[in-house]
Write a structure and sequence with these properties.
0% strand, 62% helix, mainly alpha
């Protein structure tokens, strides 16, 4: 009887939603439930379920297979457009390569821009390194990544090359968690990924045709993977929980890793001092505190 009643209530609720009598969420809210009966959304949900099932069955390359399966379904069903070509030459970078305005960048008017980009790139790298390393089991007992200066140096060199090439900042990326989930642990994994990325420059038309409904579920799974270290937060200590909560919330609602991490670096030492636990503060944290405070002051809102 309870099961039948539940099914009846569910059918009634669905009918009210479809008729517009019941609106899911608050009208005008920046984040709300979208159109779940959209074919593209249903395809994305199916993709997430496919990837999840394969992950549960410990199938290697589950995320990649999920993207391929959903893309094929999208092409066959007409929800995605077939690629017009498979191969193409990489785009010409001569219009932006080495086109530097160093004196313009050193002007006071560019200070806020450079500070914002530097802080976001620095904290994005730190967040990516710590998050992926936690998933891979590379962190020590204190939650630190040994010899972190080496991946930071590699990231810095890639950012320098990106600036010379005229593209956006490049470096460590959170999607590396997919490689960790598939068993990648050594530098050989990174070399193969770099080789495949280089080859992908000649497959731009093919990759550009992959629908968002295929890549979206993959990113959801990556986000799910990155959430696992949250269980290590000491929720019984408010001086630990509140900064961590601010980081998670601001990352989620600003769609920016740097903004979230910055809030944590500002709040953590303040709450530690207020709670009488100043010994927990690493001296270097004050450098990050000052840098992040300047970030929020000069950020071009």
């Amino acid at each position: 009887y309870s099961f039948a009643a539940g099914i009846g209530l569910f059918i009634t609720f669905v009918g009210l939603v479809n008729s517009g009598i019941v609106v899911l969420g608050t009208e005008g809210a920046p984040v709300h439930v979208g159109t779940l009966n959209s074919p593209e959304v249903m395809l994305a949900i199916s993709g997430f379920l496919i990837i999840s099932i394969m992950e549960l069955r410990k199938i290697k390359g589950a995320i990649l297979f999920g993207i391929i399966i959903v893309s094929i379904i999208g092409f066959i069903s007409g929800l995605a457009t077939y690629p017009t070509a498979i191969f193409s030459l990489p785009p010409d970078i001569s219009p932006v390569f080495l086109q530097l305005d160093i004196m313009g960048a050193l002007s006071w008017g560019m200070f806020a821009v450079i500070l914002t980009i530097f802080t976001m790139a620095f904290l994005d790298t730190m967040g990516g390194l710590i998050g992926v390393s936690a998933q891979a089991g590379f962190l020590d007992d204190e939650g630190n990544l040994p010899e972190i200066e080496k991946p930071f140096l590699a990231d810095a060199l890639s950012n320098i090359f990106a600036g010379l090439a005229g593209t956006t900042t490049s470096g460590a990326f959170m999607e590396s968690a997919t490689g960790v989930l598939s068993g990648g642990r050594t530098g050989l994994t990174a070399l193969f990924v770099a080789l495949l990325f280089a080859m992908s420059l000649f497959l731009t038309p093919l990759f550009a045709a992959i629908p968002a409904a295929a890549t979206g579920p993959a990113m959801i799974m990556v986000g799910l993977i990155m959430m696992q270290p949250v269980v290590k937060i000491n929720f019984s200590d408010l001086s630990e929980m509140i900064p961590a909560f601010a980081v998670i919330i601001l990352m989620s609602f600003t769609y920016n890793i740097g903004v979230g991490i910055c809030s944590g670096f500002v709040l953590y030492p303040l709450f530690k001092i207020i709670s009488g636990k100043k010994d927990d503060i690493n001296p270097y944290s004050w450098i990050l505190f000052l840098m992040c405070l300047l970030f929020f002051i000069f950020y071009p809102y």
